[in-house]
Amino acid sequence: MIEDQTSNKNFLFPSNSIMTILSGGRFAAAGTILQTYNSNGPGASATLSSASGPFTCGVLPDGSVQSYNSVTFIAIKSGGFTSAGTFLGGVAPSSDVCSAGCAIRVAAGIMLSTADLNGVMTLSINSIYISLGATLQLGTPGSSNGFKFSSAIILHIFGQMLFVASGGNIMLPPNSNFDIAAGGAFSSSISTNIQIFNPLTGLNIGSPQILGTSITGGTFTLSVGESGSFQLNGTAAAVSNNSSSNSTGGGSSNSTGSAS
Question: Could you check whether the bond before residue 173 is cis, i.e. omega within 30 degrees of 0?
């Protein structure tokens, strides 16, 4: 617990700073103002609405302030997922910090690579938000193993997702969402599928859902239910292409849940 004993409940932070309260942690001062400052004086601010975590407040290099009611890592430099220098505050996501779940946000103009994860997201990452103008590279170049999310994930794609593996599928467990917003895009040098799988048995659920090599010019949402069934929505051509053959999925196959 961090206790705020200041008289004005105002903490000042320089740019490139981050404060995170983990789930179960307490700041003991709801209403405290977290504010950036520089040589010209105080700047943008955020107010702590709850004394309990999870909570994250980050002061970006441009002096803007972002706050979230979650443990959130903000990518502010192009680089790898396991590189501390990629993220605000110089700390990369880890299993201990993310034991109760974490979120990732990729800032505009930044490219976040997952090549160093070797095709598998083992951390408990609840969501990845790709900002407009940002890029998430999914997979490892030259690998035919695709990419697997080991736990439920919500992918918010306002920028661009690039699938860079040379083969395999994007593997999603139940309760996941793959969401391309208007203005967002998906791109791959090879035709790519989403395969739903059971993380307990390792078996695939249903048939692969085709993404193809590109999704642009509209919205695309694939929502996976608790049982592994899914629904497609949106205005992109990929929605109608998938819906014509398989608009909802279910059942399990005998194939394994590898990303290959």
Answer: no
Q: Which residues pair with 232 in a beta bridge?
A: 222
Q: What phi-psi label fits residue 189: left (phi over 0), alpha (psi between -120 and 50 degrees) or beta? A: alpha
The answer to whether the beta carbons of residues 244 and 213 sit under 8 Å apart is no
Q: Is 41 left (phi over 0), alpha (psi -120 to 50) or beta?
A: left
How many angstroms separate the CA atoms of 170 and 178, rounded? Answer: 10
Residue with tokens 């998430």, as numbered in its chain = 136
pTM: 0.87
Tens digit of each residue's pLDDT (9 = 90 or more) over 68-97: 999 999 999 999 999 999 999 999 999 999
**What are the residue boundaries of the structural domains of the chain, listed by start?**
6-69, 70-256
The span from the CA of 196 to the CA of 209, in Å, is 9
Number of C-beta neighbours around residue 218 at 10 A: 17
Extract the tokens encoding 56. Answer: 């994250």
DSSP output for 38-86: ETTEEEEEEE---SBS-EEEEE-TTS-EEEESS-EEEE-SSEETT-GGG
Contact 173, 196 (CB under 8 A): yes
Instruction: Give the C-alpha separation, 159 to 180, whole Å.
Output: 8
Tell me how far apart the alpha carbons of residues 101 and 231 are, in angstroms, rounded to a whole number.
Answer: 25
Q: What does the pLDDT look like over 117-162, one tens digit per residue?
A: 999 999 999 999 999 999 999 999 999 999 999 999 999 999 999 9
Rounded CA-CA distance 159/167 in Å is 23
CA 67/CA 32 separation, integer angstroms: 13
